[in-house]
Amino acid sequence: MTVSAQAPARSFAATAIDPRYLIVFLITLVLVLGEAEYGILGGYDRLATTLGICLITEIVLSWWLRGKVANLASAYVSGISLALLTKPQANILWPFALGAFLAIASKYVLTYRGRHLWNPSNFAIALMVLVASDSVAILSHQWGNDLRINLIIWTFGLIIASRAKVLHITLTYVACFFVFAFIRNAIVGGPLLAELAPITGPMYQLFVFFMVTDPRTTVSTRRGRIIVVAIVALVETLIRLAGDFQLPLLRPFYVSPPILALSIVGPIAMWLDLRRTARA
Amino acid sequence: MKRCFYLKTTRDGSFYRMRRFIVSLAFFAAIVLVVVLNRRAAGSAVGLNTASIRLHEVAESIGIDFVHEAPTLDPKVQPIAPHIAALGACVSVADFNNDGNPDLYFTSSRFGSNNALFLNTGDGTFHNHSEHAGLGALNRAGEGVSMGAVWGDFDNDGFEDLFISKWGYQQLFRNNGNGTFTDVTEQAGLRRWMNSNGAVWLDFDRDGLLDLYVTGYFRSDLDFWNLRTTRIMQHSWEFATNGGKNLLFKNLGNGRFQDVTDSLGVGSTRWTLAAASADFNDDGWPDLYLANDYGPEELYLNKEGKRFELARAGLQDDSKSGMAVAIGDVYNRGRHDVFVTNISEKGFLFQGNNLRINFLKELDRFDEVASGVVADAGWAWGAQFGDLNNDGLLDLVIANGFISADSSRSYWYAMSKIAGAQGNIFEDARNWPAIGKASLSGYERSRVLLNRGADGFEDVAEAAGVTDLLDGRAVAMADLTNRGALDVIIANEKARPLIYRSSPPEGLHWIELKLVGTRSNRSAIGAEVTVEFGNVRQRQVVDGGSGFCSQNDRRLHFGLGRERPGRVLIRWPSGRQQVVEGLKADQLHVITEPK
Prior knowledge:
heterodimer; A: mainly alpha; 11 helices; B: mainly beta; five-stranded mixed beta sheet
């Protein structure tokens, strides 16, 4: 749920507290809980690099291209998301530095009708795993596989998603995930819990609360957002089936099905939506 | 004013377009940079071996005709049996008959399959001595299967005895001195059912008697052939504490051992796969370093033999999948540094091996410095340091590969479904996707890392002659033919072992030291030896078990490069210190502890 670098998103208008800061609170909660309990960062240099470059890039590019420094909440959320999701080979920092720059710069470069198409951290992490898989993996830390932390984050996440009026996106995705998990299980067999298990993990927390719900990279209508997120879940399932059936061509995708599904579906949906609204 | 300027430039498309073009250029340049840096990523760099590590595989030609067999398990865990049972190929080195030639012991892990004791004939060949020794047929229903072995003269009679770690009842064999062994497990008080993958001999209280630390992997209440539950797996991939309890047995000197685990505080339940002992903090007492699967490493500092204290030492948050502990003085500083193997798999997981440089005296911690070829070796198992080219720097051999089955199918994706889930899901083996015939980090090559000192390590495996793709487990080193060259022995899962005979360059010097304890344990296990040569000093410890389910020859090998040996400082396990000078290069020296 990376929030806009420009004006507050339309869906946030009715809330008392700017939802951007609720999101900032939530990602900070995730960071603090995870780091305190499980050392999820793997080094504060990683956080400093990612967050620092995200913020600097946002400041410089917004000032240089738009004449004013943008609200930094979006860059903050992107920076922490990337620091948490990027798990590179030991002791290398460049994936954090370049990932952070690419995430924020994508908002200014990959645009259509003045709007960016990709959620910034989704774009950066998808790019990294696709073109730099010798060096970068996603979230090999699992935060202790601990139910307590998970429940805290899901609880706060759902409350904040509700306040931010994006709960329908989150819930649609979760519902679709469950439906598709049953379908996958019917197709590939094996234990049903193995298909349901991924959504109980921390990568999905970041995905459902900070990526798939990003108001700046979701389409303009509620119905559209529900359809798009269902398609994301469908594409994720196709990638997962590719993993089950070991399609070699799609191997780079099935290391992280939801993130790569969003990176495919999200920008196409945004482009179609912007094109449709412009014509209207 | 400024705002007006920018609005103006925005309206004036040329300024804006130019700036956007510059940003776009930087954006795409950054993508190109990602690609370039990724290509240079460690693990793909292979060195040219200009410093001449030469290894030649000779196992079959010298009479090593052994093949490891993996355990069969209760059908309740059959869907992931290949994953659970992919352990047990161990090798340990000792001169059990005191003929001056190191012998080899390999374990097998299937009921009915035999372990093998290979006697070194002294002419470069080996013959299987297991049947005569009574160390072969140890894998029996109701008794369990072998997973590791360590030699140590627990009764100080001058002959190396053998402890065997098992999934089942542990076993201790006393060396009768005539080529035969007697099972003394029951009398020794060691008949314990554990699911252990290793053990280490150490004299923790410096009383001259070898004590025994046995690691637990799976819980000790599990009988893998009669499982009453399928909730047998780890409850976390990172901080699991539901493994088997490690046990410390004090040698009472009357042939019996006493369980002192709880009173000394070393009963970790962190899925320990490997342990090694040395005096890491230089206080004169042997410490314990543990490599834990699904958890952080643990360093237990010995408090004068009265208790052990879990040190932070920079280890507590760095949770990985520790498989082996190798000890080596990487930069010739007179310190024991530590190498711990872990897992790397392109796209899925980069845990990376750890190379921990010892700064315990100055900073109370190790510094983790692994990068490049040291960090990324695949799914790494056993590892050992040794100077393979006698240049005076300790090189590193790493065995790799987990399950080599159908090379067109990988279990990584299926495993990733549950790896991120809540612990109570994957703690139950029934919830794991079936592995079938898939590989899991299979067909990975072993690594031979040449130590270039300040220039780091270089992977020279292929140029050195190491190209095997077997599922390596244990690595041990020994000068098998007394030539002043360290040979490398690798025990492979479900395959034959490999013995790489080393041919270091001519003209480089070495010494080898065989220590014999008097006040200390007779094997001198735990003796700390520092050899000065040139303007450096290298420290080694007599091995009571290290790597992964392995043990190097307890004779120490020091490469000296072009230098001659200077002073040799020995700190015996009893605490006595000795300085030896004037040792000749290129010889084995037997040094007996002064009484």
